[in-house]
């Protein structure tokens, strides 16, 4: 398809362009007809097995309890980041191996750390405030390079490794930016710019959370990116960016005018939104995502959770998890059989509902459970209300619960896709 035609089509699917359903030239994730039609999705229908890996807890690797832990799996390593302290490496038995770098102002040290991996080589990168640092899996510092400065001292964020010495990253949009993504080499030079596809006249210079992008995600060797306020998921192939999937919100899409005056922390009545707090995770057959549902629609019920913006408890049913079947091109918004937590109903070992957070390739997809949540929710009464199909895995779960303490490090959950 002619590239100009593709870009024209993209511009027509931006938020608020239409209150009617649109025909798209690529797969559609049908949100408009899924809202309110929540369905239970069972782990046994999608996974062969679920394995639990309690992470070692000691003074050298204490992980903070946060609602959105960052997990990466590569080779025989589990990399975890749950707060400001840094990134920690564990083996597949949960044993602590080492910390990746350390906080500080010196060479090879960082103030903040957003980890991402190289799909080809055994190195891990940390995105700091103005630099990218590279380490081996033992935590040894290898090198660093500066982030490029662009457009009135703006920087790129949300880095991901593309190939060889190339990375892709995004830039927040403030109503004046010409570009959204950039292809950057390991010398900190921008090799290629990719334009944004949402243009609006922001009042003042304010930029907010949703002027950014979701964390990039891999499905095997293909990298995908998505803006918060754009309905389209893009793939990065041969250093080119192209549309791959589109979320169809129809009349529930945010109106473009709203972006000019307000940051999208909360829903606008009557509209729905991709929040990106959980992000998007994909396998070759499925996409898993999260959306915020307008307060005007019915929602699945779940236990109130901690909200960092209000420093208090709020119902976590503001958002809903979705599952898109790539081959069948069908979409489901998930319900659960529990008030406690949302996700895929765990009928394999009877544990907490499963939320796919990271796809490691080879059919392995990971979730993270907090020890405190497990001890609070996984009671004999809870188990008695569940259908449990893998009794051996269930007994392993109960053994883990016997030795688990509330302040222990999280338990990594790895499911094998059918």
Features:
418 residues; mainly beta; five-stranded mixed sheet; 8% helix; 32 strands
Strand content: 35-45%
Distance between the termini: 34 Å
Number of helical regions: 4
Question: How large, in whole angstroms, is the Cα Rg?
Answer: 21 Å
Query: Any low-confidence stretches, pLDDT <50, length ≥5?
Result: 1-20
Oligomerization state of this entry?
single chain
**What is the number of E strands?**
32
Mean pLDDT: 84
Major sheet summary line: 5 strands, mixed
- Category from helices, strands and their pairing: mainly beta
The percent of residues in helical segments reads: under 10%
Which geometry do the CA atoms define? globular
Biggest sheet: strand arrangement: 1-23-22-21-20
Explain what this protein looks like in three dimensions.
The strands form nine sheets. A five-stranded mixed sheet has the order 1-23-22-21-20, with no helix packed on it. The chain has a five-stranded mixed sheet with strand order 2-29-28-25-24, with no helix packed on it. The chain has a four-stranded antiparallel sheet with strand order 3-32-31-30. Strand 28 and strand 29 form a beta hairpin. The chain is mainly β.
Secondary structure elements and their pairing?
Blueprint: H1 3-11, E1 28-30, E2 38-40, E3 47-54, E4 70-74, E5 77-81, E6 87-91, E7 96-100, E8 102-103, E9 109-110, E10 114-117, E11 123-127, E12 131-136, E13 141-146, E14 149-150, E15 154-155, E16 157-163, E17 166-170, E18 179-185, E19 190-195, E20 217-219, E21 222-226, E22 232-237, E23 240-248, E24 281-282, E25 286-292, E26 304-307, E27 312-315, E28 319-325, E29 330-335, E30 358-361, E31 364-369, H2 371-377, H3 380-384, H4 391-403, E32 411-417
Parallel strand pairs: 1-23, 2-29, 8-9
Antiparallel strand pairs: 3-32, 4-5, 5-6, 6-7, 10-11, 11-12, 12-13, 14-15, 16-17, 17-18, 18-19, 20-21, 21-22, 22-23, 24-25, 25-28, 26-27, 28-29, 30-31, 31-32
